[in-house]
Amino acid sequence: MDTFNATLIVPSKEYELLRRRIHSNVKEFSYYVNSELESLDRKEKGTVRRIKEMKNMLVEHFRSLLKDITDLADVDDHSTWREQESENLSRLIQNRLDDLQNPLDCSIAKQLVCNLNKVYGFSYKFHHLVYCFIVAYETQRMLVLTPMKYNNVWQKFFFTLNGTCPLVMNKSISQWTGNQTDQIVQLPIIDDVHPKPRLLPPVLPDDFASRLNVLHGDPMVWWIGQFLKFIFLPQPTISNIFDECAEKMKFQNPTVGVHVRRADKINKDAGFHALEEYMIHVEEYYKLKELSGQIKKKRIYLATDEPNLFAEAKRKYPEYEIICNENISKTAFKKYDLRKSLIDLIIDIHFLSLSDYLVCTFSSQVCRIAYALMNSLHPDASERYASLDDIYYFGGQSHRLNEAVLQHNSNRPQEIDLQIGDQIFVDGNRWNGYSKGKNLRTHKTGLYPTFKAISKIESAIVHAYSNSTA
Prior knowledge:
Layout: H1 13-43, H2 48-75, H3 79-101, E1 111-114, H4 122-139, E2 142-145, H5 151-157, E3 174-175, E4 184-187, E5 204-205, H6 209-215, H7 219-231, H8 236-249, E6 256-260, H9 275-290, E7 299-304, H10 309-316, E8 321-323, H11 326-331, H12 338-354, E9 357-360, H13 365-375, E10 385-387, E11 400-404, E12 423-429, E13 434-439, E14 444-449, E15 453-455, E16 459-460
Parallel strand pairs: 1-2, 1-4, 3-4, 5-16, 6-7, 6-9, 7-8, 9-10
Antiparallel strand pairs: 11-12, 11-15, 12-13, 13-14
Helix pairs in contact: 1-2, 3-7, 4-7, 7-13, 8-12, 12-13
């Protein structure tokens, strides 16, 4: 472990976990009360005015509490430690990945072949690539990509993952069995892999899982973000494009990134959400910041595949400075210029990740990529988002696991009972104070108050790395 400055104040594990739990519980309390008041508003029309007054006062209480909790992290003398710990852990992972991709002797290097021709769009390939890379990390194999439909375009955008070694030729390629010692192994897509890799998200490597749990509110996101950070290393051509776009748009912080996915996703993988639904969270973010006098101009980076949305946003929200690349939505899904479409998508991911807060739907892979990248840029960005549908997930992952810390006796048919210590497979957050999941003790599925459970971190022991400390 790096030697800390003698004056560096290191917080206890209990303090960091409790601070984030209070922050989360305040938000869950607000979700619950707002939902119940809205329900009353619909049923009791004679009390509309009083309910509206209560809601307004509740929102003010909520913002004040959230501001105080957020400020606590700025004045508790632990911010320097958080920055240093994040830097140390990130450097540890980046060094290990670099060592994997640049073995000393290519002729004997063990390799894991990742086939990107079987999967679909660019964002799906990004997630598939992360999955392959995680398995390569677990098995300490160099990751090698098979030639793909737009391999040349990919390598023009990013520094190639193949590092100093190409695929070893004149060697047989064996299929994944989970524990073979063959020099070259090919990995199937995540839905077909058997046996399952030990590090399949949300499982973390055991040698730093406990440290990451103290540092970060959602360790799985940080872990995935580290692989994206390594993969998403742009060639100078793309870096120049990023700089030109930033200058043209006058991109600066603070900015809220808003990603609205429609087109081919609506009524297939996601429901329709009006612009107003996104803007509720955008406005709440800026109102919270205004309590500290931190906001002079309200900005949005709007990314969407719906061309008409830009004009709608500017018409309905003239008090916002809306920056975007309107050409992106016009070329989305068009195959006649693959290079342009990919560049436009990468631009959106880049600027969404650079935003201070992200509002989107986690059913969108583009949004999840941007969010994971955002978490590679901060010690802990696990609260810098609002999703209109899913919680964050990694496609093909094992279930997220929660553990009950408070007892709950169900009082509605759709709820489940909880005893302290119960393990719960999480299905999702309803953003109304309740989550849905399966109690592994009772095998019943239903709703439970979100604040009565905490995330349970799972880890697995993997082969020791030479640079095993940070």
